[in-house]
Write a structure and sequence with these properties.
With 137 residues, this protein is of the alpha+beta class. It contains two helices and eight strands, in the order E-E-E-E-E-H-E-H-E-E. It has a six-stranded mixed beta sheet with strand order 3-4-5-6-8-7, covered by helices on one side. It has a two-stranded antiparallel ribbon with strand order 1-2.
Length: 137
């Protein structure tokens, strides 16, 4: 995406400035999960989760989520939250398989690009809406 700025749950985050978990193959980083500690919400917010294409489908993303769950419990935090866009059916599938539940839909929460048009996402779907999920621990 050439930009590590992420907007979700009404906040703007710089993913590189957040705590993170890494997935490595030998000495090579092949996956990253950046998260924000949201004490006021009793949550760890998954701001970014990325796995290199050649490593997708091997369970690494699930392992990162499991590690984040352990970290949340260790911090005394009771849930994980994540937001995705309306076009990202793969993320919706992934998170629900791990026990996340849909908690909200913010229609037109994703701003148009600089040209006043919405970005086109997976399957040619305009990216407009924020879908929120959570997993209680």
């Amino acid at each position: 995406w050439d930009d590590d700025g992420m907007d979700c749950f009404g906040h703007q985050y710089q993913a590189v400035d957040l705590p993170h978990l890494l997935l490595c193959d030998g000495g090579r980083v092949v996956g990253l999960l950046s998260y924000a500690v949201e004490r006021g919400w009793d949550a760890l917010n998954i701001v970014a989760l990325n796995i290199l294409p050649g490593y997708q489908g091997r369970g690494g993303a699930g392992d990162l989520i499991a590690r984040l769950e352990r970290r949340a419990r260790g911090l005394g935090i009771g849930r994980l939250i994540v937001a995705t866009s309306n076009d990202n059916v793969l993320a919706l599938y992934f998170y629900q398989r791990l026990g996340f539940r849909l908690t909200g839909l913010l229609v037109d929460a994703i701003e148009p690009n600089g040209a006043g048009e919405h970005f086109v996402g997976l399957g040619g779907i305009p990216v407009r809406d924020e879908i929120r999920l959570e997993k209680r621990l």
